[in-house]
Amino acid sequence: MLWDPAFLGGVGACRVEHSYEMYRGIHTYLQESGVDGVKVDAQSGMGSLAGGIGGGPKLVRQFTESLESSVVQSFGPEHCINCM
What we know:
Largest sheet: 2 strands, parallel
Strand order of the largest sheet: 1-2
Radius of gyration: 14 Å
Strand content: 5-15%
Number of helices: 3
Distance between the termini: 21 Å
Structural class: mainly alpha
């Protein structure tokens, strides 16, 4: 555990109510750069950040909904590989 990157460097996350804007910024930049889809990984760690807002499933659901809405707007409905 002492050599875990999250433990050593800390973990940062935007507030859940700003998650859509965060994803829109990322996906707009990628789209304008010619990218035509995204692969998302390592989301399983998000659940451990949710102690103050009702637990992991609620946080993961809110971020995933923001992610998928942003992907649809930038790339279309079938242009995201969502991999845990």
